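Collaborator request, handled under Task 6.
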Amino acid sequence: MVTHGSNFVFTLYSTIGRNRQVPRESLPFLMQSLSDYKNCMKALESVRKHLGKKIRSLQWLIFPAVLENGIRNLPHEILSYIFELCHHSTVGCDFALRISQVSRRFRQIALQTSMIWTRIAGNYHESRFRTFITRSGIRELEI
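Structure tokens returned to the collaborator:
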């Protein structure tokens, strides 16, 4: 390792100046310092790679919880609006059923969002047909 300390190297560097003439007696020390600094850089790079892997693993691990926490903090009205937007951007009649089965909260919000129940398939059984009509309220139906 460095015997004189890193301050010595920088002091020596500033005395050498622009002409870059290194005193002969300092050359072995400077060569050793250069080698030590390169080894430190390799060690730091190894630590950086290791920490990068740890960070990516933790991000991957907590991502679902972060999303869930974010969704949990959204007001019901915002989720209801999102459900309506999703309903309008999908084709078919399954969105309302699928979103209402995600969780208790999603079911509660879906049941209160009449817009998503307005699209009814012609091949629904009578009970499902009536359920959709009831949940859609006074909105126009799309059959």
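The cover message to the collaborator said: "Helices lie at 6-16, 27-72, 76-89, 95-99, 104-112, 126-136. Residues 69 and 76 are 14 Å apart (CA to CA). Please let us know whether this matches your experimental observations."
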